[in-house]
Design a protein that fits this description.
The chain has 7 helices and 4 strands, in the order E-E-H-E-H-H-H-E-H-H-H. By secondary structure, the chain is an alpha+beta fold. The strands form 2 sheets. A two-stranded antiparallel ribbon has the order 1-2. Strands 3-4 form a two-stranded parallel sheet. The chain has one domain (27-140): Arc Repressor Mutant, subunit A. A hairpin with a 2-residue loop joins strand 1 (10-15) and strand 2.
């Protein structure tokens, strides 16, 4: 499952009185969230807050959750949303998908959970991208 830049899909828009197909693109922050989450390797996880901090928006954990909840169509199968979990180390629910679906997807990738449903961050937390990539990404925001 490879990640692509989230710019697929079209919407109808009015241009000079005529209907024209215009590519549908998520807002810039959401695109950055998707690009970052695509870099998380199989078998590793990040928290919503960690994603926000890497993007230079340390208080935007809920915005990261909103961006992932907005995944639809081809992006839903492309962006590995299941690799983003709560700061407590537990899976969270997502529009129409229960936490058990997220846990199942992560277990297929080799992530292990304890009896209480928590991951061991010392073993599975992703350290994040190289600094150069992060700096370049922040300038796009």
């Amino acid at each position: 499952m490879g990640c692509v830049r989230p710019s697929r899909g079209t919407t109808k828009a009015r241009s000079r009185g005529r209907g024209a197909a215009v590519p549908h693109r998520p807002p810039p922050f959401r695109r950055l969230v998707y690009r970052l989450v695509c870099r998380v390797p199989r078998g590793k996880v990040v928290t919503y807050g960690q994603v926000a901090a890497i993007l230079g928006q340390p208080r935007a954990a809920r915005a990261v959750g909103t961006a992932l909840a907005a995944l639809r169509g081809g992006l839903l199968g492309t962006v590995p949303w299941q690799r983003v979990i709560s700061a407590s180390g537990r899976c969270t629910h997502r529009d129409g998908l229960s936490a058990s679906v997220q846990r199942d997807l992560l277990e297929r990738e080799g992530v292990r959970f304890d009896r209480r449903g928590h991951v061991d961050f010392a073993k599975v937390r992703w350290a994040g991208p190289r600094r150069e990539w992060t700096t370049r990404l922040r300038t796009e925001l």
